[in-house]
Design goal:
By secondary structure, this protein is an alpha/beta fold. It contains nine helices and seven strands. The radius of gyration is 19 Å and the shape is globular.
């Protein structure tokens, strides 16, 4: 698998003219644990509140060049970084050979979303693990499925970064969106217009999902920083519907 990927990238980037990306749309994307999607079910076994999916680009290209050994050198470097850090950022592999570990999936993500777009292993890692609130990351990716029993779109993936909000999955555009149910969090229901208007911020997601699973990510940050950004969000997100236990089970 690894050798095949390296061969493809070497063939493409060494034999042909090469390019580097000038980013136009980029997103730090997360899997929300759930029972209804394959990635969500895999995540349930390892992440309490989230799994890191990757850092994704949609880009314009300009000329660049790599030397002959760049593919192997950068992929090996990225793997060495991931071996030390993957479980601290919930960036788990769901490949058959190292399920829940490292590093087939992680290396593939780097080659497809980092190296192929001009990023070194270190550059991609820094973007992948940038959980800071500045510069501001806006909601720009939602993947959801329509749950017919309760008439709501359940979010299975979410992303924050630069660029317009994009959607994926088998969802109904006329209905509201909700996260899979968790006992330690109120049910949050948001309309499409609220998503478009930026009601769901990265600060709120970081405090309620990322830092609840990996508290060290919020260590050293002023509490006032989160409190100020979340006060408005909490008031905006209080228009939650009260579900019965059966309805809550459908959201899990």
């Amino acid at each position: 698998m690894r050798n095949f990927l390296l061969f493809l990238f070497a063939l493409h980037y060494i034999s042909l003219a090469c390019f580097v990306c000038v980013s136009a749309w980029q997103s730090l994307e997360f899997i929300i644990p759930n029972y209804s999607s394959t990635s969500g079910s895999n995540c349930l076994n390892h992440g309490k509140t989230f799994c890191l999916l990757g850092f994704h680009y949609r880009f314009n290209r300009a000329n660049w060049n790599w030397d002959v050994g760049a593919v192997d050198r950068e992929s090996r470097h990225f793997t060495s970084i991931m071996l030390l850090t993957y479980n601290r950022v919930n960036f788990f592999s769901f490949s058959r050979d190292n399920f829940g570990g490292c590093c087939d999936f992680q290396e593939k993500q780097y080659l497809l979303e980092g190296f192929s777009k001009g990023l070194t292993a270190q550059q991609y890692y820094e973007k992948l693990t940038d959980f800071s609130l500045r510069p501001v990351k806006t909601l720009n990716w939602i993947k959801a499925y329509f749950e017919s029993k309760i008439c709501v779109n359940v979010i299975t993936e979410i992303g924050f970064g630069e660029g317009e909000l994009r959607y994926g999955g088998d969802f109904s555009p006329d209905l509201s969106f909700a996260f899979p149910y968790r006992l330690d969090q109120q049910i949050v229901i948001l309309s499409d217009s609220q998503l478009m208007d930026g009601y769901l911020t990265f600060a709120w997601f970081k405090a309620n999902f990322i830092c609840k699973d990996q508290p060290w990510i919020c260590e050293g940050e002023p509490l006032s920083q989160h409190r100020f950004l979340l006060q408005t969000q909490d008031s905006n997100l209080k228009n939650s519907h009260t579900f019965s236990k059966e309805e809550m089970d459908d959201l899990s």
